[in-house]
Queue: 2 jobs
Job 1
Amino acid sequence: MAREFRTVGVVGLGTMGAGIVEVFARSGLPVVAVEVDAAAGERGRTHLEASTSRAVKRGKLSQEQADELLGRITIATSLSDLAGVDLVVEAIPESLDAKAKLFAEVDKVVGEDTILCSNTSSLSVTELAVRTGRPGKVVGMHFFNPAPVQKLVELVRTVVTEPDVVDDVKAFAESLDKVAVVIGDRAGFIANALLFGYLNHAARMYEESYASREDLDAGMRYGCGYPMGPLALLDLIGLDTAYEILETMYAESRNLLHAPAPVFKQMITAGLLGRKSGRGFYTYE
Ligand code: CAA
């Protein structure tokens, strides 16, 4: 019989973590959101409140529904608060060491049947699975930014994932109104493996003053119907995250398409991370 996921946990309340919490809470699930950094937890709470009140203003939710949605979310600072959940999604920054350590810790706290998922965009899910005592119950569950809007979830199965775990998490993702695709454990999975060659190329064109940033973006928006141009999208993703993804894919494949354009490192060093720092290719209020 298929597993039911009645309560869920999310670790990390950055851009992706907060979006994933919102996805779960919108679908009626109680969510325990763990963020060990209290200031980041506050930012996550503000993000969730802002997103919910935007939905009220746009007439998508009543004030009562928004209050109920926020009431389903418990923000905690200790992993021990995950003890009773059926599924955990890890959404901390892209560091294999930090994620591996976290998986080993969460493994000790949750029940033996709890499924552990990582929202990693390019790191090895197998490396995370083997740090736990339940490698067969670990999968990648990769959401896209903004998580409440983008329909895709990539489910990453490793060579040791139990097949019924993949089936159950796929059914769960579909119950969240997402489209789920299943892929093996290769850096970049499907969407990023295809997308980041293009984004990297756009960053190089910008670096070479091939065209202005506005015209590079307009070219893809109005010529190809993309919802946003590549430089605006890089600002949304975060230049640090984009750089990590490119580096990981390049290290695995040595495909020059993914060798990060030098401008990434320069902008990151200067603190220009995109929307989250107020400035990237563009400047934000
Ligand atoms: N959280 C929640 N909802 C949000 C949101 C957010 N951060 N941003 C936008 N929305 C919602 C709005 O509330 C609105 O909802 P309704 O239609 O229900 O009212 C809807 O999205 C459209 O928003 P806007 O009208 O404000 O703006 P828009 O039409 O210009 O769309 C966009 C904004 C959704 C970001 C759109 O430009 C888009 O889809 N861009 C492409 C994003 C993309 O490619 N993402 C993938 C990045 S790669 C990745 O994430 C993988 C990785 O590992 C890095």
Job 2
Amino acid sequence: MKLVKWLGGAAVGASLLMIGTSAFAVTIGFSQVGDEGDWRPAFSKDMQEEAKKEGIDLKFADAQGKEEEQLKAVRSFIAQKVDAIIIAPVVTTGWDQVLAEAKRAGIPVFLADRDVDVKDKSLFVTRISADFNLEGRLAGAWLAQASVGNCNIVEEQGTVGSAPAIERKKGFEAVISNFPNMKIVKSQSGDFTTEGGKKVMEAFIKATDNLKDVCASFAHNDNMQLGAIQAMKEAGLKPGKDVFMVSVDYVPAMKDALAAGDANASVELRSAIGKYIYPVITEWLKDKKELPKWVVIPSDLHTAAAPAR
Ligand code: GYE
């Protein structure tokens, strides 16, 4: 079986990594955030399918959005003596201790998607993910152009304390701060869910006299924006026409909303991370060569003009 080449590294037979008498080349524990929105289940599915293709025994643990569950899962992976651990961390804080436990047990940790905030960067090997700050900047730049630098914005934030909520906000604000007439007038977390986005938009509609003087909705993910679209339609407003709608993920339902003219732009977040991360891990287990701390997956902006699926 061939492994995908990574950064020019030679392809190796997975059989070289055979340990003990296990039928699998490697055993990896994966602690996933949960199944919020449309993007996350697509990412989980990809990780499971790619693991199968690569002959990896993947122990998958769904934390249902709770960091305590993730800490438990990681400790159980350590007890099971897996070869490597992948974490998509719910929030950035609270990781120092459990990562130190993994290190002491000699089990390498790889981050997928979201980031952690730890002082000692040697606690994880590398992180493979998109640049959330860039996603925020792309959304902000698109809106600056679309509104010619004049825009009152309502913002639906992702999960409080999560890397994408922190970085998408920072990136977006960095761009709009160049335009004196662009500002965020309301901002609230919708926890990356459709229902959360709908509730938040309902509150914004009430608080702003039906979005009077509001020019755009910036949502940290598509699902919240899809919820916001529902809330606006129920209030008799025309999302994508009365108000610019820009968000992140580019999930299939957002492609439909773009094609229908209910939304204007979405920054694509690729969910196919398995094909990047597994070769990195299997190569690392073989040669332990130091890796850059971040392997960046590209992001692209799509607008309403993009063809439907
Ligand atoms: O945008 C969102 C998901 O962590 C970057 O999490 C990811 C975000 C993604 O729930 O839809």
